[in-house]
Amino acid sequence: MGAADPITNEQAVHTLYAEHREWLQDWLRRRLGSVDDAADLSQDTFVRVLTFSDARTIDEPKAYLATLARRLLSSFWRRRALEASWLDVLARQPLAVAPSAEDEALLREAIESIDRMLDGLPLRCRQAFLLNRLEGMAHTAIAAHMGVSLATVERDVRRAGLHCQVGDAAAPVARIRDIDARHEGIRQASYQVLTERKTSPSRARRRALQGGLAMLVLGSGGIVLNEQLPPRSLLADWHTRTAERRRIALADGSVLTLDARSGANYRISASARELTLLGGQCMIEVDARPQPFVLRSGPARLQASGDAPARILARRGESDTSIALLTGHARWFDPSGMPHALAVGQSLAWRHGDAHIEIGTSSDAQAAWTDGVLDVRDAPLGEVVAALRPYQHGLIRISTQAAALRVFGVFPLDEPQRALRMLADALPIAVRRFSGWITWIDAR
User: Fold this and answer.
1) Which of 23, 172, 180, 274 could bridge to 294 as Cys pair (CB 3.0-4.6 Å)?
2) Each residue's pLDDT tens digit, 161-219
3) Which architecture characterizes domain 233-368 according to CATH?
């Protein structure tokens, strides 16, 4: 090509990319705190240049690229703020059944679309418009619900309609209503997300950098914190975080092994040794000492006699607790204080808030997690996923249909994504991962 030959826009973009990609990616990394996110937004920026600009006319490349990148950053933090609001809402009113991955993607797109249309409107306008269009409420009902005059509602709805063009909002609103028909609660949750989000992009940025926000998914309260350590375990004497197992030598010579995301308190006195499991799972290898060893977790307590070693397995979940005696001698005390014998291979289980305690059986397979493996013998997939969650950074969500499938096999706890791939190979399920944070499991 001669010196006088004109270059194409594609060639100009190629040159721009070669000369400024590393600079732009570093510029974005400093603002995002993530190499992966910076790489994604850097690519998006150059795609914008190729699609909407003539790179041959750009006189100040760095200034031009930074301007485009700032616009993309604004959208990025807006999405993150919506995601944080979605988690907060669903923590307060979790859905009974998870939407499919396809519905989840459509829902996310619809919420983002409506949020962009309503951007810049006062909260009251957003609420009135969404109550009318999304919830289908008449103006008089909205006035009574919000405690304002009918004229105020009519003015707010009209203002919102002019702001976002009602026709443009019709499609995403219809999509949310359609998904709600299949998964009750979606419409109400969407309304709350769109009216409760007050986080500005800059604040969302700081929150994301501090905690790592997840995407649209059902979660428990305080999800960012809980992803690393359940709140009830924050002040525990001993605790573990996500994907961390810990083996602890106690002062009496016993050994405590904590599963990931678990917490326990321990104290010793002249009359007894006592361990309280606050959350998660633990294994106690009780050393033979004159004092009995007491394990507490909820209304019941287990007491191992101090004259011989014992191995005890305990698990405390969100809704239920279980304790199993694997070796040694022990008895348990019901809420009234009445003692009962517990044989090796027996277990106690109860649901929180229920005084009834069931006696069941246990096996060494239940303690396989202490060696980093999950030994599953005809258990529902929902229980398997629950055991993998403490080892997965981010969140795992499973549909009701997939959760009911039965599972056999041995899976690596320290490699939860590999375990999920093994499950996908063996079962009729689809495992999808979004943004590095969310894993969806659905029946095929």
Assistant:
1) 274
2) 888 765 577 888 888 888 888 877 788 888 888 887 544 444 443 343 333 333 333 33
3) Sandwich (2.60)
